[in-house]
Structures are given as structure tokens and as C-alpha cells.
């Protein structure tokens, strides 16, 4: 009898989840973003959100909430709709790094965030002022060794992938530099372009405007292979830097933990559909992003594996929030 009751309850739950998924979205969907308008992640998100708006016949509004190491955007999602009509787009730094790097966070990845859909992965470039003294990786390393704790590197926020990547670069080259976090990506790359900040790690999408303006130079790519979109830029190892220095980030959509599974499945399915559309794939590749359609379980596993990896990296490099 008890087993029969359980089966009935499970059936009712499945019917409820299915109905919720069919009804979603019943109004406009809001995507909270910790990335400034015009940045690489913002551009990539808007491409997919435009597709979702068409699939769902509802507006999908991207609302930038930069600053606070992602906390501002996550808190806005937490206080919004609990059924998937408020989503947040985050990078691996927000969900796989911050919980280890910070002693206290106003959000809990497991308790507050439901993995919805993986979007893309992108490698980072070592970049510096096009008119500055650092025109190669050996230039950068030599200057850092000659004057410890003098050279600066900029990042979008403490605990971001560029922050840990730069800390790893220090560790692998035996150098000591000064970390300068920024709130706005435009401010970061403006400072790199003028030489106010010595160098930074950035994606092709984020550095693109300053590179095209001739203000910033891509010195090397922190990957095993060159990027087809920038075939003339060598890998860090090819450029005379440490072998094995690789830095990349992934971006994904998360929903409130209370979002019905059926709704999460629909979001996942439709984001994957958008990522497979030729115009989206072509645009992503052009700006150095690798589309990564995946299941919700695949994203959850990626969060767990990256959390372990970055915990070890933080321990190895001694990266701090100072």
C-alpha cells in the first residue's frame, strides 16, 4: 500500500513538473548578469537570449549587474522569481572558485543555484599595451624579476579566472606582481591600453575592441594550441613562457534551486538548440568562444570537478582576496 501511494505521489509530481515546463515562460524572462554591457560574456549571452525570445514568444531581457564578485547579480536572482523567470549567467570563477577563496559568501552554490545550461568555453590571452615596453612574454617575465612587486596585472574581480591565472603565472615564473581588480571591463582594458596596468589576461571577445583600436596587443595565448581566429598569436610556450600554462573560462546559465525540473530541462534544451544554430556558432567562433551544449548533469559535474581543481590551484599559488 505504501509503495502504491509513493507511485501515485511521484506520478502527481511528474505531472506538476511537466505542466510547469509547458507553461514556462508565461511572461518575460530576466537574465541577471555580473558582466558589463558590451563585454564578451554579455555579447555571447545576448546572442542566445535573442534565440530564446523567439523560441518562447516572450521577451528575454539581459540585465547587467556588474560588481561584487558576482554577488550583486546572484542576489538579484535570489530575490526575484523562483520559477525560472529570473536566471543568472555566471562563469566558473563565481561557482567553482569563490566558495574556496572567500571565507564568507552571501550565496551557496549547492543551496541557491540550479545548473541550467552550459554555454561556452574560451581561452585567455596575455595582453599588454601595444605601445608599452612589454611586447613579448620574456619581456614581461624579465621586468617582473628585475623589479619584484612592481609590475601590475588587472582582473575583472577578485577570484576571477584571470586572477587565478595570473597568480599561476607568477608561481610558474617565480615572479611577484601586484593584483589590481576592476569593476568595469572597459576600465580594465583602458588601463592596460594606456600602460597604467602592466598586463592582463583577457579573452578575444573582451580584448577585441582595444586590439582593433591598436591600443592593446595580444602577446600570447594561454592554451596548448593557437586559436584559429588569431593564428599569428603564439602559445605562451611558443612565445618563450612556461610550458603548460593554460587559462580558460566557461560560462553557464543558473536558475534558483526551487525551479521545477521540467522548466530547467526546457531551458537546457532550448539553449542547446540556440548554440547549434549556424549563425550563433559562427559568431562565437569569430570572437574566440567554443560553444558547449551539454546536459544539466554535465554542467553540475563540471562545477564539482572545477571546484576541486581550483581549490588545489588556490592552495598551490597562495592566491588571496587581499
Structure description:
The chain has 322 residues and is an alpha/beta fold. The chain folds into two domains: 2-121 and 249-317, Bordetella uptake gene, domain 1 (D-Maltodextrin-Binding Protein, domain 2); 125-246, Periplasmic binding protein-like II (D-Maltodextrin-Binding Protein, domain 2), CATH 3.40.190. It has twelve helices and eleven strands. Helix 2 (40-56) links the parallel strand 1 and strand 2 (60-64). The longest helix is centred in the first third of the chain and has 22 residues, at 2-23. It is globular, with a radius of gyration of 21 Å. The termini are far apart.
Secondary structure layout:
Blueprint: H1 2-23, E1 29-33, H2 40-56, E2 60-64, H3 71-78, E3 86-91, H4 92-101, H5 109-112, E4 113-123, E5 125-129, H6 137-146, E6 152-155, H7 161-173, E7 178-181, H8 185-194, E8 199-202, H9 204-212, E9 216-221, E10 248-256, H10 261-275, H11 278-286, E11 290-291, H12 296-317
Parallel strand pairs: 1-2, 1-3, 6-7, 6-8
Antiparallel strand pairs: 3-10, 4-10, 4-11, 5-8, 5-9
Helix pairs in contact: 1-10, 2-10, 4-12, 7-12
Q: Strand order of the main beta sheet, please?
A: 2-1-3-10-4-11
CATH fold description of the largest domain:
D-Maltodextrin-Binding Protein, domain 2
Separate helix tally: 12
User: Can you tell me the CATH class of the largest domain?
Assistant: Alpha Beta
How many strand elements?
Answer: 11
* SSE run: HEHEHEHHEEHEHEHEHEEHHEH
Rg estimate, integer Å = 21 Å
